[in-house]
Design brief:
Keywords: Hydrolase, Metal-binding. By secondary structure, the protein is α/β, with parallel strands linked by helices. The protein contains eight helices and 15 strands. It has one domain: Ribonuclease Z/Hydroxyacylglutathione hydrolase-like (Metallo-beta-lactamase, Chain A). The longest helix has 20 residues. The mean pLDDT is about 95. The site of fe (ii) ion (FE2) has 5 residues, from loops.
Amino acid sequence: MVDREQDRALAKATGIVENALLGKTRAPVVHTFFDEATFTATHVVHDPENRAAAIIDPVLDYDPASGRISYESADKVIAYVKEQGLQIAWLLETHAHADHLSAAPYLKGALGGRIAIGAHIVEVQDTFGAMFNAGDEFQRDGTQFDHLFADGDTFTIGEIDAVVLHVPGHTPADLAYVVGDAVFPGDTIFMPDFGTARADFPGGDARTLYRSIRRLLELPGKARLFLCHDYKAPGRDEFVWETTIAEERDGNIHAASGVNEDDFVTMREARDATLGMPRLILPSIQVNMRAGHFPPPEDNGTRYLKIPVQGV
Ligand SMILES: [Fe+2]
C-alpha cells in the first residue's frame, strides 16, 4: 500500500516534469545564491509570467566565535526578489540543516510566504529536543512551521505545478521539491563527481538514502536538478550546483545506475566514518528544529545556544 502511494507520488512528479519539458506548462526560472561559508545553495524559483516565487533553503550568516548573526546572504536574496518584482508564496526547507542556520523567519518578515518542511520533522524534533534537553516551550509537533508536507503533496508556484517527494536517509524528514521540470533534491545526491550526502546523523540511514536516490533517478532524464550543496570535487576549481537526472544516472560516483544497494551502503558507511561533524551543527540544529527561530531569551534578555559536552 505504501509502495503504491509512493508510486503514485512519483508518477505525479514525472507527469509534472514531462509537461514542462514538452512545453505544455511553463518551466520555472531558477536563480541561485551560493554561500561559500557553508557550501549551501539557496534557490529562488519563480513563474516568469506572474512572478509568484518560492525560496528554497535560505542561509542566515552566523559567526560561531562571537555568536553574532547577520543578514548579508539573506539581504542579497531580498534585493533580487524586489528587483525582479517577485511575490514570495513559500519558504521551503528541504530538511533541518546541520551546516547552516535558516534565514526563513527573517525572509518571511521581509517578503511574506509560508515556511514549510517535511512532516517527519516531528521525529527530528523529538530526537534533538531530547539531545539538547529543550524545555516545554519547545513543541515537538512541527507547529513552528507554517506547513508540513507529506510524500505526494502538491502545491503551485503561480501556475506552475509542484509536488513533494519524501526522500529520507540523510535525515528522516528530507524532502525533494519537484517544480515543473526543476527538481530540488535536498541532501540526497550532489554533483555527479562528488557523489551523495552523508547518512550518519541521528535518524539517518545509508540503505534508506540509496532507495530515496533510486526513486529520484526514475524522474525524466532531462529534468533539471538543483543541488543543496557543492564542495568542489577533487580536480574541479569552481562551485557547481546544477545538473540533470540523466547525468546523475550516468555518472554519479556513488549512485550511478548499476551501483547496487549493498555496495552503496558499504561505501557510504565507510566514508561517513571518516567525516568530522559540520562546523555549525550544534547551533544549526537548535535553530532549525525551531523553524529558524532562536530559543526564547533567558531572564537577562539574552538568547543562548547550548553545547552538549562529550567525554567528561
Ligand atoms: Fe543536510
